[in-house]
User: Fold DNA-binding transcriptional ArsR family regulator from Aminobacter carboxidus.
Amino acid sequence: MNSISDTSSCCAPVKDVTQKLAALSHPARLEILRCLAGGRSCCCKEVVEHLDLAQSTVSQHLKILVEAGLVRYAPERQRSRYEIDQAALAAVSASVAALVETCCAVEGANI
Amino acid sequence: MNSISDTSSCCAPVKDVTQKLAALSHPARLEILRCLAGGRSCCCKEVVEHLDLAQSTVSQHLKILVEAGLVRYAPERQRSRYEIDQAALAAVSASVAALVETCCAVEGANI
DNA sequence: ATCGTCTATCGTCGATAAACGATGAACTCT
DNA sequence: AGAGTTCATCGTTTATCGACGATAGACGAT
Assistant:
């Protein structure tokens, strides 16, 4: 039926999901999310102290999470606030669940 | 509780999850999974025809999915069978759901 | 035995990711 | 004003990804 190159309706969301999954596919970024868990917002330095990585590296990882839409970013000058976008994260979980549903469904109906 | 640097018990599963998420974070591989959906097994050529990519590229993507443990592989000579590992896929979904749960939980209870 | 088909792998190339140090901007405090 | 903090970005280096063509192995059919 439709290939993945169907740019009209399917490609954008798919790319969105894959970008979010890519953002989640790094241990450091998962750890960052854990650091931001519970809805509390952290500044960069907090995460840095938690992670044992260079500040610039952590900043990059945060940027990736923000660009993927998983983390919100309030650029206050001194203490930028990073905060989990819980809705976006839940949406990713739902997308993965839907994918699993699709892949595991018994196709007895029409084929 | 445990940080990500806890190499004894926590690190291996984390890496396992991130590897699976990385495998899922590419549109072509999602499309491959859709092609394998419903528990039906496909050979490489079927996927190639479905995907508009070179055969070698598809074979690589399949390999990544197999190495991540999301797809089972029965190397028959002429028509290798690729098949979704539904349990593994469900486990990924559960892991993501648990992550979201952790990240969105109100931190009153025990962490 | 030979041809055609299907796979997997190799080698290559450009692009991207991951990590770091260094730097500069902006703010707070003394 | 000046020192100290915090942060984002730049530039660099190394490693990996994504895609392809080419190739070799294995099988079925002729």
